[in-house]
Design a protein that fits this description.
Length: about 675
């Protein structure tokens, strides 16, 4: 793309910087005035003055680009870069130190003051600008545009990796609402060894718990290692799938394109994989679902029907024990790869195909066969595990909250605006890049994306979801794959691509690169945990209460914090396998009368000597609050019936744990 104004890039960077600094200066002034701190507090006033001064300085530089003395500023900059270039690779080390410092500030106690997105964005942008300068000093042959994109993506990657560090914790209680419950469900694959009883597997995400169950192969592995293993699964599967797609794209094909060789260089491939990694986390796309594209990327070949059919069958068997909306995913992904890599016109010209029907036969068989295998896999799993099929399909009974399509308290962006933000640049790329293909290929790709998009936005309205884009995971994978083929001109064609029909404007590329990182910037933060002394005191108190109840012959229900039994943190406690809070919540949202009535009956006859749960002190909130509808279901169908018969014994407020016992 030719740029007529050589200073356009400088003006754009300075303009964005001044706008961001102006935004936080205005917000800071408004907040300080509301708190009567502006000019009353020396410290906070000094911070505000620095922000305003920085904004003014950048504005002066922005205006200077229209005057002749900008040449003098450029000369100083070039001289500074020459001096910095003597540091060599140390420049990159400094860049990574800056990223680490940014991550530390957000995740440390200071982060409680850095929750606002605009503040984080300004800080991140300054780190990126410094990183681009350091990268340019290290490799002066790179353009400023390239080093700016590289700095943006690598800083985003660095911060995203840092957000996983707090997840590897020795803290014995759950780190968030459902975190520790996942380890209990993965332990059920070894229930007889761990608990001494047979326990039915969870019908929710069996493949996820199968992957998480690997550390249970060795007895005595502590909780912190299971947390590490889950982080490993997130990172390993995401990195593996982007690597395999990059490897697939970089192989020699007979496709024709118009991209310069530089797009296939080492740095470009590294940045592509970094962008792909961050793109998948916009959902996020869960690791047990990424197994499907990993299987297909590794060996799918549109020319080898039977080999591809076997791979589709394997991936579909995995999908069958994953999520029901992923059942057709392996066949659809095979069809997408086929439409991208096999040109109908070429095969007709070679005589390999006699008609359009022959061309469509393979993808139709893959989709149909794969979906059938997924359902058979589910049936075998139900038969083997002993789970009732109605519990697997309970989610179909849940309410649909259509207001979550638009901005709401649970998801401020809203499902539709968020997914359109994520998709916009890539859909524009597809609209331009798929022109000239046979209509059958265009319609096939468009139909698959539309079906997965529609299914994802509908599933996202199910109560319990809609707080992010993870229910659009299949659509995100397909969009990522298709747009990657188009961008690198790896779509097989009969002739050369017309100049300019595929390569998008730099504005489109920049938008596609920026959005995944913006999602990353808005994630993570300081999550304070109680100190070691408080934690040990809570465990001791809880242990004493539970031991006394068990020795008296009573049953103790760990509705929450069941990992304390799983990892023998509270030794000698028999497991009560029913009514774990994640599953109980699912049944409550689905209105599963049989399951709930069984719970009510056990409560009414005071089956449990103690119930360990989250604090049962909720009230009806409504949709004006985050997860308000979920809260109301929990209050009406669990808390209120429980508190009719049970009362609080101890509330560990800092831990979010309450112990209940039957009323006299």
């Amino acid at each position: 793309m030719k740029v007529s104004d050589p200073l356009l890039g400088s003006r754009l960077v300075l303009g964005i910087t001044s706008l961001l600094l102006g935004t936080i200066s205005f917000q800071a002034a408004r907040e300080l005035i509301e708190r009567d701190l502006l000019f009353a507090s020396v410290r906070w006033t000094a911070v505000w003055v620095v922000e305003v001064f920085s904004m003014v300085l950048v504005l002066v530089l922005f205006c200077a680009t229209w005057f002749s003395w900008w040449k003098w500023i450029e000369g100083l900059s070039e001289g500074g870069l020459k001096v910095m270039s003597r540091l060599g690779a140390f420049n990159l080390l400094l860049f990574f130190i800056l990223v680490a410092a940014y991550s530390f500030l957000i995740l440390s106690p200071v982060g409680r003051y850095l929750k606002d997105f605009s503040i984080r964005l300004v800080m991140f942008w300054l780190v990126v600008l410094a990183g681009a300068t350091l990268w340019k000093a290290f490799d002066k042959h790179r353009t400023w545009g390239t080093v700016l994109i590289a700095s943006w993506l690598c800083a985003g990657m660095g911060y995203k990796l840092a957000t996983f560090i707090p997840d590897i914790s020795t803290y014995p209680f759950t780190l968030n609402w459902s975190e520790a419950s996942r380890y209990y469900y993965s332990s059920l694959y070894f229930a007889e060894r761990i608990y001494g009883i047979h326990v039915l597997l969870s019908p929710l995400h069996p493949s996820r718990y199968l992957m998480q169950a690997v550390p249970f192969l060795i007895s005595g592995i502590p909780l912190w290692f299971h947390r590490f293993w889950q982080v490993f699964l997130w990172l390993a599967t995401s990195l593996a799938v982007v690597y395999l797609l990059d490897k697939r794209l970089s192989r020699d094909t007979n496709s024709t394109g118009s991209y310069p060789p530089a797009l296939f260089g080492r740095l470009s491939r590294l940045l592509f994989m970094t962008w792909g990694f961050l793109f998948l986390f916009q959902g996020p796309v869960y690791y047990h679902l990424l197994v499907i594209p990993i299987i297909l990327f590794g060996g799918f070949d549109g020319d080898r029907f039977w080999k591809s059919l076997i791979l589709v069958g394997l991936a579909s068997a995995w999908a069958g024990i994953s999520r029901i909306n992923w059942y057709p995913m392996p066949g659809l992904l095979a069809a997408v790869l086929y439409f991208l890599e096999k040109d109908l016109r070429i095969d007709l010209a070679r005589g390999a195909l006699r008609s359009i029907r022959d061309y469509l036969a393979r993808p139709v068989v893959w989709v149909g066969f794969g979906t059938l295998i997924a359902f058979l896999s589910q049936a075998v799993f139900i038969l083997w595990s002993g789970i009732e099929s109605k519990e697997i399909t309970s989610s179909f009974m849940s309410d649909l909250l259509w207001d979550r399509w638009l901005p709401n308290a649970t998801f401020p962006l809203g499902i539709l605006p968020a997914i359109l933000l994520v998709s916009a640049a890539l859909l524009l790329l597809l609209w331009r890049g798929l022109r000239g293909l046979h209509a059958v290929r265009q319609l096939g790709l468009a139909a698959i994306l539309f079906v997965l998009f529609s299914g994802g936005v509908i599933v996202s309205t199910k109560i319990g979801g809609g707080s992010n884009l993870h229910n659009l995971d299949a659509y995100l994978v397909m969009l990522w794959v298709t747009s990657s083929y188009v961008f690198f001109s790896k779509v097989q064609r009969t002739g050369p691509v017309v100049e300019g029909t595929v390569l998008p404007a730099w504005g489109v590329i920049s938008f596609a690169v920026c959005v995944p990182v913006l999602f990353v910037i808005n994630s993570g933060g300081y999550n304070p945990l109680p100190d070691k002394g408080t934690t040990e005191k809570t465990l001791a108190t809880l242990s004493g209460m539970v031991d006394s109840s068990v020795q008296a012959g009573g049953e103790v229900l760990f509705m929450s914090e069941r990992q304390l039994v799983t990892f023998n943190t509270l030794p000698g406690i028999p497991l009560v396998d029913k009514y774990e809070k994640v599953y109980l919540m699912e049944m409550a949202m689905a209105g599963n009368a049989d399951y709930l009535n069984e719970y009510y009956a056990d409560i009414q006859r005071r089956r449990f000597a103690l119930i360990i749960s989250d604090p049962m002190r909720g009230s009806i909130k409504g949709r004006e609050y985050p997860f308000g509808e979920e809260n109301d279901v929990w209050v009406e169908r669990v808390i209120e019936p429980t508190l009719e018969v049970y009362q609080s014994q101890v509330l560990f407020k800092n831990m979010g744990i309450e112990v209940l016992a039957p009323k006299p």
